[in-house]
């Protein structure tokens, strides 16, 4: 079956530090890959996505590249802000058809200190 | 276009009571997925429904849980005789009728069983 493994947290960084959150996956077929962000008490917001190998998703200074050879989709940001403090989830979906349920990692909590 | 709506946002039930969670998908979306997020964990797939049909319920607990998506009205996730272990955040997501790489998530219902 499908699975997503995320770097364990929590991660604590100082403002303007470089962020990497590792994500690797196991999937049948050719999955689409996603990063979601969840702020305290809120739902999931899609942060970025990549739908095929070598695609790079980017949004709000965050980036992740779909690496088929290493089955990875690591999240990076060059300079984090206090407002980036949240829980980040890596996820995959093996089909863009309606039957494609998502498989999530367990989440990584990021705290950015001023 | 309003996003996915869930209500109530917070629900408190005593052990043994019933919980009903509602999800209204985005306009033009006829496919709904329910996920459960236990404390400190990622989201786990529960059930996928189309209008008047359950397509995949492989993630649903065998007892006490049921889901429906009637021709008219919201999708309902029903939990009978709740126990403390049912305390979690329940998210629904919807997908356009024609398919999409992305699932659109609602804000979630946080169920607390006392």
Mean pLDDT of chain A: 92
Q: What's the order of the H and E elements of chain A? A: EEEEEEEEEEEE
Largest sheet of chain A: 6 strands, mixed
Annotation field: number of helices of chain B = 0
- Helix segment tally of chain A: 0
Which sheet architecture does the biggest sheet of chain B show?
7 strands, mixed
Q: Which value, in Å, is the CA radius of gyration of chain A?
A: 14 Å
Oligomer: heterodimer
Approximate shape of chain B: globular
Q: How many beta-strand segments of chain A?
A: 12
Q: How would you characterize this protein structure?
A:
The complex is a heterodimer of chains A (114) and B (114). In chain A, the strands form 3 sheets. In chain A, strands 2, 5, 6, 10, 11 and 12 form a 6-stranded mixed beta sheet that branches. Helix content of chain A is 0%, strand content 50%. Chain A is mainly beta and 114 residues long. Chain A starts with a strand and ends with a strand. Chain B has no helices and 11 strands. Chain B has strands at 5-7, 10-13, 19-24, 29-37, 43-50, 53-56, 65-68, 75-79, 88-96, 104-105, 109-113. By secondary structure, chain B is an all-beta fold. In chain B, 0% of the residues lie in helices and 52% in strands. Classes of the chains: A mainly beta (114), B mainly beta (114). Chain A binds chain B through residues 4, 32, 34, 36, 42-46, 49, 51, 89, 91, 93, 96-99, 101-107, and chain B through 31, 33, 35, 40-45, 48, 50, 55-56, 59, 91, 93, 95, 97, 99-103, 105-108.
């Amino acid at each position: 079956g499908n699975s997503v493994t995320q770097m364990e947290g929590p991660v604590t960084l100082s403002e303007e530090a470089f962020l990497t959150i590792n994500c690797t996956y196991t999937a049948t077929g050719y999955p689409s890959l996603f990063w979601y962000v969840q702020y305290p008490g809120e739902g999931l917001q899609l942060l970025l996505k990549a739908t095929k190998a070598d695609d790079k998703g980017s949004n709000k200074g965050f980036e992740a590249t779909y690496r088929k050879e290493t089955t990875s989709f690591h999240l990076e940001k060059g300079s984090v802000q206090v407002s980036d403090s949240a829980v980040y989830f890596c996820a995959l979906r093996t089909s863009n058809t309606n039957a494609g349920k998502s498989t999530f990692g367990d989440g990584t909590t990021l705290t950015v200190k001023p | 276009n309003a996003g996915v709506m869930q209500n109530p946002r917070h629900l408190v039930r005593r052990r043994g009571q019933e919980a009903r969670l509602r999800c209204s998908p985005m306009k033009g979306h006829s496919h709904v997925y329910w996920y459960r997020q236990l404390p400190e964990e990622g989201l786990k797939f529960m059930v996928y429904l189309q209008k008047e049909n359950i397509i995949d319920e492989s993630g649903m607990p065998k007892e006490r849980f049921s889901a429906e998506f009637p021709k008219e009205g919201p999708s309902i996730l029903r939990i009978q005789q709740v126990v403390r272990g049912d305390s979690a955040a329940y998210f629904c997501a919807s997908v356009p009728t024609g398919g999409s790489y992305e699932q659109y998530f609602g804000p979630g219902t946080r169920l607390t069983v006392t």
